[in-house]
Amino acid sequence: MASVTLSSLHLQYPSGAVGLEDIDLTVGHGEFVALVGASGSGKTTLLRTVAGFLSPTSGTVRLGDRVVAGDGVFVPAESRHLGMVFQQHAVWPHMNVARNVEYPLRRARVGRAERTERVERMLELVGLGGYAKRDPATLSGGQRQRVALARALVAEPSVLLLDEALSALDEPLRDRLRLELQSLTRSLGLTVLHVTHDRDEALALADRVVVLDGGRIQQIGTPPELVSEPASAAVARFLSDATVVAGTRTATGFRADGFPVDVPAALLSGAATGDVEVAILPEDVDLVAPGPAADGVAASAGPGAESAVVVSSLYGRSGNDVILDWGGLTLRSRTADHRPVVGERVGVSIRRALVFPSAGAAVPSAAPAAGARV
Ligand SMILES: Nc1ncnc2c1ncn2[C@@H]1O[C@H](COP(=O)(O)OP(=O)(O)OP(=O)(O)O)[C@@H](O)[C@H]1O
Q: In this protein, which residues make up the domain named ABC transporter (predicted)?
């Protein structure tokens, strides 16, 4: 079984910097898991620990049933039988395409006839049939990444590690390679760990997404779970550009600290009370005609503050991306119907706000109420 299991994994760099803390994660056989998080959150450290380039300070890494790191064991990278693709510099410029792809087979002392046959098959698979003799310098960026992918897969690894493997490519090539990567890894039954800084790519490709912050796992879930039931305000902000605002929740609703923002109780989702923070997803912010708020609609309080000013307004296929100054609070809205212009005054109507204990308090054990799904 080509599963990857990380148990109580810690990694501290010699400088004292914490790379990973208390990581428990199982990537199932044939599962595609994406790792996302802000810069410095530990994505690369986690991938390199699985690869065998870094040794954990404590905890274990298992591939299938085999411990490859921890418990006094350390299996070096070349003996872990993993495929790896990095962002760039992955293809050796002094070797032609076939020599690049066959390199792992040469190392494994596979005979010439079998090497040739497997390299040809692999090049066909990644859409580079007929490119065997080409100099990598004559290939496009996307073709070079396919060579790197073919080389990662030629030795038939059961686990594929991708570190920003598509990030250096331009759209729409990147989009096409995403689709190809998904069908290829599915058809080969590969277990994949994919590090990306691109949230949309992670949500589009992965069976499950892991959100890291400060070396810790903040949340693991399917893409719809993460989008509709973020475990914290920070996850909602990172994945969905939610506006996060701190304040107090009482029986009647939420009142923000320092901003003239009230949200009635009926529109709040989540159990936390007292000092809380709310996350307002852009999809839950509607723009309406400016004026006093209607009943049951959240609005900023105070004279003259019912409306917000449009700070930026960008067209987007799945809705316009509008940033508002709402009584001093920067609020994001995604709205399909009306695209306001910068400087315009608009009314704000919030359909839902997710409530979490304030940052620093314990992470909620339960997801927001079932009715909170977007
Ligand atoms: N070689 C190193 N020596 C000391 N600290 C390191 C080293 N590599 C990474 N770190 C630290 O470990 C933490 C995690 O870094 P890591 O590179 O894993 O993050 P990342 O999520 O991959 O970031 P990015 O998206 O910028 O690549 C950071 O605080 C980083 O500064």
A: 4-239
Which listed CATH number (3.40.50.300, 3.60.20.10, 3.40.50.2300, 3.60.130.10) goes with 4-225? 3.40.50.300
Render pLDDT for 239-294 as a digit per residue (tens, 0 to 9): 999 999 999 999 999 999 988 888 999 999 999 999 999 999 999 999 988 765 44
pLDDT digits (tens, 9 = 90+) for 30-68: 999 999 999 999 999 999 999 999 999 999 999 999 999
ipTM of the complex: 0.97
Q: Whose CA is nearest to atom 7 of ligand 1?
A: 13
d(CA 249, CA 11) in angstroms, rounded, equals: 38
Please report, for the chain, the start and end positions of each structural domain, with discontinuous segments joined by +.
4-225, 241-357
Give the residues across from 5 on adjacent strands. Answer: 26, 62
Alpha-carbon distance of 276 to 274, in angstroms, equals 6
Neighbouring C-alpha atoms within 13 Å toward the C-beta of 158: 12
- Please say whether the beta carbons of 261 and 255 come within 8 A: yes
Q: Is the dihedral of CA 136, 139, 144, 150 positive or negative?
A: negative
Note the pLDDT of residue 306.
58
**Cβ partners under 8 Å of residue 169, min gap 6:** 141, 142, 145, 177
Cβ pair 6, 24 in contact under 8 A: yes
Query: H or E element: which one contains 256?
Result: strand 253-256
Distance CA 84, CA 55 (A): 17
Centre of ligand 1 to C-alpha 291, Å, is: 48
Look-up: residue for tokens 């923000």?
A: 256
Q: Whose CA is nearest to atom 12 of ligand 1?
A: 19
Distance 11 CA to ligand 1 centre (A): 11
The whole-angstrom distance between residue 249's C-alpha and the CA centroid of its chain comes to 31
Ligand 1, atom nearest to 215 Cα: 14
pTM of this structure = 0.85
